[in-house]
Amino acid sequence: MVIGLLAIAMAAIAGIANQPQYPDVNQLAAVRILTAEHRIEFPDRIVLTLEAESAADVVEIQLFYRFASQDATIYGYPKTAETSGVLTAEFDIVTGGATFIPAGVEIEYHYVFRNVDGSRFETERYHVEYLDPQYDWQRLDAGPVVVLWHDRPRSSVEAAAELVTDRVSRIASVLGSRPDHKMKAVIVNNRSEAQRSFPLISQAASDSSLYGGFAYGQFDVFVLSGLDADGMIHELTHLFVDEAIDSPLAKIPAWLGEGIAMYFENGTGGRDTEVANAAARRSLIPLHSMGTVPGKPSEVRQFYAQAWSVVDFMIESFGDERMSLLLRSIDGGQTIGEATQTAYGLSIDQLDAAWRSQISGRPSFTTIVDPGTFGTSVIIAGALVVAASAVAVKWLRRDRSVASIDD
Fold this sequence. Notes:
single chain, alpha+beta, 6-stranded mixed β-sheet, about 25% strand
């Protein structure tokens, strides 16, 4: 499943800039850093602590930080600070609840001191990788993705990563693009660890372990419960789609995003049976109503099965290039209805009808017209009509000549 986080803020007073904006710094106002440390209290916060000395009177200490995959810089003030004698300060970066940050994210941060005379001093950059500190995390560089895991044999991780790497070329072919930087996969081992690492979508979803993983496009990270090659392929595809559709105005419907992610998995996972049963019950969800994932767990499984089936139909019936064109059209600002018309010559309802005809075994009379081949066909057809007319006239003349002689 793909997650989009629209805003990240600190629990303390904080601000966000569109681009990194660092204050003017007077390096003559020297500050000597004694300690600069961090403590991860997973999954709630990262605590940053600082001790320093300064010959001048420091009146303010600020924290500036950014996520490694983003340009925006966030600033905040300490929850506790002492500016007389040895300077001390403690900051919180809240990582849970409304300001959820996924495991695996790297954070770059530094401090700025302001003296009483207005001069400033900026520290060096520090880095922290946000992972649950109770585990001994291992790391594997596997082509397009760096895998982080713990308490599993390295050989099993390498085997799963190899299956993922083998699919990358096919994914790039369908999407029409490939990211130029590495993604990160964080593998957790059980339900308890997943509940600590996943965002809370709903209590029902959490209790039923409805979701096996989440992808975070803005962080280039996905978190997966269990070492499963199909799960890794699914979530990595979400990150690739996020890279392919990078316009802030583009909106990809849930059925398309989830359907593409499932298309590259091995096998169907019983989804074809789920779709067949829904069709027999006459309870298929209209495609135009599948823009978002439903909230009820009982409806989610059918939603995913239909999403997979529709995308499988689109790619297998009409090829990779049509899907690539669909995604480019969405990235260019078209709505999903406009994009399906551009790529397939079909409205959403017509696409839905064509898919339903295919799964029911009924012939579909919907045709997709390519302007180039259509124009050529018209020319050929016109030539054949002219030729046939000429032959017909010739035979009519011949018949008339024969008849007059016989008379």
